[in-house]
Amino acid sequence: MAADAGDFTDPPTEVLAEAAAAFGLLSSPSRLHIVWALAQGESDVTGLAERVGGALPAVSQHLTKLKLAGLVRSRREGRRQVYLVDDPEVVTVVRVMVGQLTARNPAPLRRIGTGA
User: Fold this and answer.
1) What angle do the packed helices 88-104 and 29-40 form, to 10 degrees?
2) What's phi and psi for 108, nearest 5 deg?
């Protein structure tokens, strides 16, 4: 049964475009893993690269894209940049999606982005 048209108001086109862009960025397993890792706590690029199993330059590029989209931000801590999630609602979406997929697949999880 289709939802009654009065139940939902269509969002503006600009909002849909912004949401699609955010989902597009999160469609990369590496970027999704980075957001997942940052949801657990802030980290520098070296720590993220070790955690997600990516090369330092690649993780840095992913962080730049996520930062430009407003999904993560950074702050200076001494000589290093520390990254953290800038939008807690995005973390909620990621946790719900990953949680649902985990519940459907009781097999042990593989590390995202490593193929292991």
Assistant:
1) 110
2) -55, 140
Nearest to 69 by CA among 39, 28, 25, 30: 25
**Pairwise CA distance, residues 83 & 73, whole Å:** 6
Q: In what order do the strands lie in the sheet with 80-85?
A: 43-44, 80-85, 72-77
Residues in the chain: 116
In the chain, the amino acid numbered 50 is E
Helix segments in 27-116, DSSP class H: 29-40, 45-52, 56-68, 88-104
H or E, element range at 22 = helix 13-26
> Looking at this protein, which amino acid is placed at residue 54?
G
Q: Taking the model in full, what pTM does it have?
A: 0.77
* Structure-token pair, residue 112: 């995202």
41: amino acid identity, one letter:
G
In whole angstroms, how far apart are CA 27 and each of 44, 46, 110? 22, 22, 17
pLDDT in tens, 73-92: 999 999 999 999 988 888 89
What is the model's pLDDT at position 1? 45
